[in-house]
Design brief:
By secondary structure, this protein is mainly beta. It is about 5% helix and about 45% strand.
């Protein structure tokens, strides 16, 4: 049986709340995100979060966004979702392509964005010192664009997820 979001939520970091620039619009925008070994499917809509990964495997960053009822009914246009990875220690920071998703003021206000992290994403460059592993902080930036493509009313960043990345396990 597929796990519900309510069952998964206690194992996730607290959601961050991003800014809505016109406070006359009541409500809020909440963001949960985590790293998983698989992408969401119909059978497993909320894959288990992982916090220790190997750099030779593929992973996914799952971003779950909830716009509360008053907010979602007043916003149209797009959400722009971006992830960046900052390193703790000697390794390059990483950037990934942004994802735009259409806002639906008549919908439920729930949006899921999945970023694929291909195998080797966190492999250190050859000119970096050998280490037992590294810690990275995943940052999610969310902005909005109005229906004309201009900056919208939502803007914020979340920095709640750290992952430890280790070298591949040999003879596994």
């Amino acid at each position: 049986m597929a796990e519900t979001f309510e069952e998964l939520a206690p194992r996730l970091p607290e959601p961050c709340t991003v800014e809505i620039f016109r406070r006359a619009i009541p409500g809020d925008v909440r963001i949960w995100y985590w790293v998983a070994e698989g992408r969401p499917t119909g059978d497993v809509p909320y894959p288990d979060p992982v916090s220790i990964i190997s750099w030779d495997q593929q992973y996914f960053v799952i971003v779950y966004i909830q716009l509360s009822d008053p907010v979602r009914r007043h916003l149209c246009g797009k959400l722009c979702v971006d992830i960046d990875v900052d390193t703790c220690g000697p390794a390059p920071d990483l950037q990934f392509p942004e994802h735009d998703i259409d806002l639906d003021p008549c919908g439920y206000g729930f949006y899921v964005v999945v970023f694929e992290l291909p195998a080797g994403t966190f492999a250190p460059p050859p000119d970096y010192p050998a280490r037992c592993g590294r810690v990275y902080r995943l940052c999610v930036t969310v902005g909005s664009k109005d229906a004309c493509g201009n900056p919208g009313l939502i803007w914020g960043v979340c920095e709640a997820v750290d992952i430890a990345v280790h070298p591949p396990v040999l003879n596994h």
